[in-house]
Structure formats: structure tokens, C-alpha cells
Amino acid sequence: MKKKLLSIVVAAGVILSGGEFAQASVGDNIIKTGNKYLGTPYKYGSTFGNTRTFDCSSFTSYVFAQNGITIPRTSVGQASAGVAVSKANLQKGDLIFYDTDFDGRVNHAGIYAGNGKMLNAQSNGVAYTDAFSKYYWGARYVKGRRVINQKATSSAAKKPVASKPAISSSKTKTHKVQKGDTLWGLSKKYKTSVAAIQKLNKLKSTSIKVGQVLKVR
Q1: Which domains does the chain have, with CATH numbers?
Q2: pTM, whole model, 2 decimals?
Q3: What pLDDT is recorded for position 22?
Q4: Exactly one of 29, 56, 67, 107 is catalytic; which is it?
Q5: Can 108 be counted among the known catalytic residues?
Q6: Plot region of 93 (φ>0 → left; ψ -120 to 50 → alpha; else → beta)
């Protein structure tokens, strides 16, 4: 089976490293998650975790969070996350950024979907578009960033194994919500992700209340 796969890859004239295969695997999962929200209406300033509407960066941050990758909420913040990747080396799952009003600042973020396409939340809702169209996006393109880190790719590269039992309660840490706490802040404090905290506590949104006790690990 391995020889057959190698033959196919070589025949296509492409040889990928283990890390590149892993990047592709995680990238595929990110695109699959984003596809669930195709057609969702656009609303500027939509809050993180709200899936009824999205703006460009609430969409990207939410989709990545659902795949265990925490990135900043805003397009400006996301444009500094991860590592730079050239336009020629973009891979599925990379973030791509634009300056739509030519004021020198990033103001739009999307997810590179491969084959020159971008999956993003734009004025007509979540949709695919030509990432480098000469009539619009091409002239406004700024840069690409890769936030699928080594930890994520290493995990994707491993052979799937049976699910492990949940961590025993004796080893689970808890946090009592204080005034000013947010899931974003707690994910940073406890070195986890917003999605992980939501799953651990069966939260359907990012809203938390003062005095609420949350499992954080």
C-alpha cells in the first residue's frame, strides 16, 4: 500500500514531507469545519462563538478554535500570529490577509482553501471566492500566515488510536470566574484553547458568569 501511494505521488511529480502531509491533514479539517457555515450571514463585530452571523475574523478565529488552534479575534491580531508564508507557498489552512481600502492596514482575513480559492466571511456571507482575482482581491492582498503549528501537525501525523478515557477529576484543574475573565484570557492563562474549555464544560457559547466554576484542564 505504501509503495502504491509513493508511486502515485512520484507520478504526479510531487514529493511531500511528513510535516507537509500533516499540514494538509489539519488544513482539510479546518476547511471542513468552515464548510459547515457556508451561507451564514455577515455582520461586522459579531462576537466570538456566535455562529448565527460572522465577520471575517470572528469566522477565522472560531473555525481554528474548533480545531484546537487559538488565534487572536481581530484580523490585525491574526496577521501577526504564526509564521510568514509566501504567496507561492500557501497551503490549505493558511490565513491570508487583505487591505480592502488601501489605507496600509490589514482589515480582512480569510482561509486559503487551495487552488487559488479563499473561504471567508464577506459581505454576502460565508463563501468561497477567488483569493487573487485581478478585479478585486488580487490588488488588495497583503500576506499569508501559517498558524497550524508543529504541535498540531505532529498530532495530525500520528496514526489514529482509540479514544482515551477522560482525565480523572483528581487531575482536573478548575477556575472560579472573576470579574473581567473571558474564555480567551483563560485559554492563555492555562495554556489551552477556547474550544477545549467549551467542550470540557459543555458550553454552547463563550458567555461566562462571575462565580462560575470552570474546568480548565
Answers
A1: 16-157 (3.90.1720.10), 169-215 (3.10.350.10)
A2: 0.64
A3: 55
A4: 56
A5: yes
A6: left
Strand partners, 112: 118
The Cα–Cα gap between 35 and 44 comes to 20
Residue 171: the pLDDT is 64
Phi-psi region of 149 (alpha: psi -120 to 50; beta: other; left: phi over 0): beta
Catalytic option among 108, 124, 149, 201: 108
| Spans in the chain with pLDDT lower than 50 | 1-18, 150-170
Residue of 35, 89, 120, 201 marked active site = 120
> Percent of the chain having pLDDT more than 70?
79
* Contact by Cβ (8 Å): 31, 92: yes
Distance CA 39, CA 117 (A): 16
